[in-house]
Amino acid sequence: MLRRICLQLSSHDELPSNQAYGLSVFLIVTAGTVPGTAAYEQALGVQSLVESAFAGCDRIQLNDVVVVSERELTLEEADLLTPWEYPDAISFREGTPEQLPTEW
Question: DSSP string covering 23-69, please?
Fold first, then answer.
């Protein structure tokens, strides 16, 4: 089961328009979500969706999309990540597009 999605950005500063942001996405799953389980397969499906969603993004270089168990992630590693608090983590110049859900 997916517990949380966290992001690691190459920069939190505004970059010039000709420079891409580097992004790593961490799909953190519960301790019992191990390879071979249906929950793990679902996490891999989310991984594929994230990779596809970012494939066409300008100015975002997707470095990694990783499925990791909460048991394997150290506190030191977690401190470097930013939890994705959807929809608060997204801003749009002209409001939320209709095709995006506003609640999960």
Answer: EEEEEEE-TT--TTSHHHHHHHHHHHHHHHHHHT-TTEEEEEEEEEE
Residue 94 token pair: 């002209």
Mean pLDDT for the chain? Answer: 85
Contact 2, 68 (CB under 8 A): no
| Statement: residue 5 has pLDDT above 80 | yes
pLDDT digits (tens, 9 = 90+) for 29-60: 999 999 999 999 999 999 999 999 998 888 89
Q: Which two tokens stand for residue 80?
A: 């470097």
CA atoms within 13 A on the CB side of 70: 10
Tokens coding 92? 């749009």
